[in-house]
Inverse folding.
């Protein structure tokens, strides 16, 4: 059930099924200098927002959740947005000091921050290292100035290489270069060159996302009025080029849009895909603890006000059934190289699975079903075929 209005947490939060003390934390930092026309995340320019007050609201929410969840141990922390790299070193220190008071971070295996190459300096990189941030995902998107301009990005290709260098000099080796393909005006040659330039930086991780036209974005309007076109053949060609180029260079294609070498896949995202419990703090952040899911109000001013007045900012709460959770796991885990364990497939008609296997799109591997060949490319329609 979804409720439209905020309601308090139940007096006895549900217990976890596996290890009740292990948790993954997401913090949503909704500020961006400039709004990209394809982006559907909750974000805005800071305007008059008091950023110190915002950090204090996040910390207040962190303390409350930590106490309700009996001081869980955090395994991963992910600062996303928005543009977390917009936070000044002073604000980041304030945030991390408070987080360390609220949670036990000593066992955190991965602390990731999303960064925009346009908002980067030696001082920021050194601050990240000092605070224990050990992974940075760089929103590079493309190495072509005209494509970056189409995307409304502020940075130039040289800023990407400069950010990687500054991070390495500060001691942060685990850098992900995040790229996009099927951008309006982008040719297959542009995409091949972007992949080559990203590889020249020798990152431990690369993401290659197919641009999607999300509702309520200027890009969607351009698609609707015919200025932009979504070309499935070009999408496939670009997806396949990324797969061949990156796997030939030793990267493991471990999720539809993600590649890693040396075992440096994203621990935080792997936890999501496996259906682990996660806590989201900040406006619009979603949390799922066992069968309970809630979403914070997607409005920074209301978020701060509600945290200060009533201690939480929930706007929607849902209690998930076992079959809902299984269907979600199928949708998420089929995207990964490990596939979905067969114990989660009880809701799926066996003949639909057999059809995929017969067509060479999936295979049974030990106790799981995983996509192979063109199956990885067709994951969205396959998920629909299995669970509709
Ligand atoms: S910088 Fe990132 S979060 Fe901000 S508008 Fe652009 S894509 Fe969205």
């Amino acid at each position: 059930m979804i409720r439209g209005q905020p309601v308090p947490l139940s007096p006895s939060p549900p217990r976890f099924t596996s290890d009740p003390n292990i948790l993954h934390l997401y913090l949503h930092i909704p500020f961006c200098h400039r709004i990209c026309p394809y982006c559907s995340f909750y974000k805005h320019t800071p305007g008059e927002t008091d950023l110190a007050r915002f950090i204090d609201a996040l910390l207040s929410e962190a303390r409350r959740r930590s106490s309700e969840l009996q001081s869980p141990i955090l395994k991963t922390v992910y600062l996303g947005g928005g543009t977390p790299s917009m936070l000044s070193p002073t604000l980041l220190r304030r945030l991390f000091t408070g987080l360390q008071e609220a949670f036990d971070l000593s066992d955190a295996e991965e602390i990731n921050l999303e960064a925009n190459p346009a908002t980067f300096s030696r001082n920021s990189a050194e601050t990240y290292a000092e605070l224990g941030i050990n992974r940075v995902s760089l929103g590079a998107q493309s190495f072509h100035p005209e494509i970056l301009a189409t995307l409304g990005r502020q940075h130039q290709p040289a800023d990407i290489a400069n950010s990687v260098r500054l991070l390495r000099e500060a001691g942060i080796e685990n850098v992900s270069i995040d790229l996009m393909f099927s951008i309006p005006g982008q040719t297959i040659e542009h995409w091949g060159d972007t992949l080559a330039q990203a590889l020249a930086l020798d990152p431990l991780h690369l993401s290659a996302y197919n641009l999607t036209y999300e509702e309520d974005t200027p890009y969607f309007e351009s698609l609707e009025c015919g200025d932009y076109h979504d070309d499935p053949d070009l999408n496939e060609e670009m997806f396949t080029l990324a797969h061949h180029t990156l796997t030939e260079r030793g990267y493991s294609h471990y999720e539809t849009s993600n590649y890693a070498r040396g075992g440096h896949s994203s621990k935080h995202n792997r936890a999501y895909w496996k259906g682990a419990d996660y806590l989201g703090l900040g406006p619009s952040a979603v949390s799922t603890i066992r069968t309970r899911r809630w979403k914070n109000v997607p409005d920074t001013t209301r978020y701060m006000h509600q945290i200060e007045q009533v201690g939480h900012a929930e706007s929607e709460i849902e209690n998930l059934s076992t079959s809902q959770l299984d269907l979600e796991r199928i949708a998420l885990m089929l995207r990964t190289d490990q596939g979905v364990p067969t114990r989660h497939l009880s809701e799926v008609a066996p003949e639909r699975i057999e059809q995929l296997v017969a067509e060479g799109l999936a295979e049974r591997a030990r106790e799981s079903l995983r996509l192979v060949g063109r199956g990885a490319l067709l994951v969205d329609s396959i998920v629909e075929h299995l669970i509709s």
Remarks:
- DSSP finds 13 helices and 15 strands in the chain.
- The radius of gyration is 21 Å.
- The longest strand covers residues 73-81.
